[in-house]
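Quiz preparation item.
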């Protein structure tokens, strides 16, 4: 009996305790900088841009091929996808990863965008730059200006379209997250970076292009976007994933190996989905007002012209407060806060309403007077109708009585 009891206890331990251990680990799950191998990393909410985790997010580093995220969205927004691009000698002999374009080959811009973002073609990047700006150098100037204007980056300077090493070609994890979020808002860009395989029929290369981003196969809900590598940058990776209404974007830079980079973004995304969800906190057109301050200042009104969202800790209630300068502050039970800027709105005040002096009659508006006249006319018309109806009825009754008397006299 004793061996049987021991065997049962052992089986119960093996079957149940590991699961209990995993559950406890998830309950106590935290993410620290030491757990991320990349020298710099960040996790943001893809809808709001709010940072959810960061490790040295503003450290200047080399991006390698995640540069192509910027090149790709610029090409999509500024180029005609059906335009024919003639491949130059410079593009043909570009170093590194290629889609093996031939000098003089004519390719649509759309095809080059797929080769750029799926297969990380440096030759495709240079061909795109020369087509859109005449030269790689001029394209870089336009790209930097475009990124500052569209994404708000302040720590980025690109000198080429592909990310091959240049001491003056740099960015930060925080800026790359901004660029990626902007790019992922474009449906065409999203389509390209989510494409796993694509037949490629080129002049010198016939194959099936396989997306270099392994997260598309490895991670549940993966939606994009791009990896990179050079000797100086080491391994860089930007990854996005969506579950339900929540989409997250993770960036890691200067990881020692490819697998460490993928491990970083996996940990970042896992952490984000375990702790946060994107929630709508206001609807377009919704109006808010502040309370009158202690000094007797009047209340102020604000509104939002679009739906507002926030990255909320899962399961946590929050309160709303409107600041005097129009910020909607969300305070969560965990102590975290989110701030969203509202727009000022002019609302009527008691002082601004029209006052009526007691010794003078109120002046009615034209519409009010018209309504009263219409009611009066209708009342008079009804009275005329009833008078006419009674008159006709009385006259008819007289005729009937007269007719009745005449008949009686004959009999």
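Solution:
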């Amino acid at each position: 009996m004793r061996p049987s009891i021991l065997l049962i206890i052992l089986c119960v331990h093996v079957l149940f305790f590991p699961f209990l251990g995993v559950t406890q680990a998830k309950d106590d799950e935290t993410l620290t900088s030491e757990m991320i191998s990349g020298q710099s990393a960040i996790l943001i909410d893809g809808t709001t841009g709010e940072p959810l985790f960061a490790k040295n997010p503003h450290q200047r580093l080399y991006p390698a091929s995640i540069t192509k995220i910027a090149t790709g969205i610029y090409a999509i927004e500024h180029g005609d996808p059906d335009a024919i691009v003639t491949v130059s000698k410079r593009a043909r002999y570009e170093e590194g990863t290629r889609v093996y374009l031939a000098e003089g080959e004519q390719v649509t811009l759309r095809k080059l965008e797929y080769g750029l973002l799926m297969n990380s073609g440096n030759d495709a990047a240079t061909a795109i730059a020369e087509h859109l700006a005449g030269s790689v150098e001029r394209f870089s100037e336009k790209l930097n200006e475009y990124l500052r204007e569209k994404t708000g980056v302040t720590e980025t300077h690109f000198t080429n379209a592909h990310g091959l090493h240049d001491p003056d070609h740099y960015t930060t994890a925080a800026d790359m997250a901004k660029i990626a979020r902007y790019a992922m808002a474009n449906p065409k860009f999203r389509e390209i970076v989510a494409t796993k395989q694509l037949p490629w029929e080129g002049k010198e290369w016939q194959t099936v292009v396989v997306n270099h981003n392994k997260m598309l196969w490895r991670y549940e809900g993966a939606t994009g976007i791009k990896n990179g590598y050079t000797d100086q940058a080491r391994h860089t990776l930007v990854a996005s994933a969506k579950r339900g209404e929540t989409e997250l974007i993770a960036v890691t830079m200067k990881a020692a190996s490819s697998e460490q980079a993928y491990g970083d973004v996996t940990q970042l995304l896992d952490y984000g989905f375990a702790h946060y969800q994107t929630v709508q906190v206001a609807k377009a057109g919704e109006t808010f007002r502040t309370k009158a301050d202690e000094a007797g200042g009047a209340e102020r009104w604000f509104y939002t012209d679009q739906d507002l969202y926030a990255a909320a800790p899962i399961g946590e209630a929050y309160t709303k407060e409107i600041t005097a300068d129009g910020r909607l502050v969300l305070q969560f039970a965990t102590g975290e806060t989110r701030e969203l800027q509202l727009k000022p709105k002019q609302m009527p005040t008691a002082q601004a309403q029209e006052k009526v002096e007691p010794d003078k009659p109120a002046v009615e508006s034209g519409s009010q007077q018209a309504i009263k006249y219409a009611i009066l006319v209708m009342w008079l018309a009804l009275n005329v109708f009833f008078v006419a109806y009674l008159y006709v009825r009385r006259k008819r009754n007289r005729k009937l009585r007269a007719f009745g008397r005449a008949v009686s006299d004959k009999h």
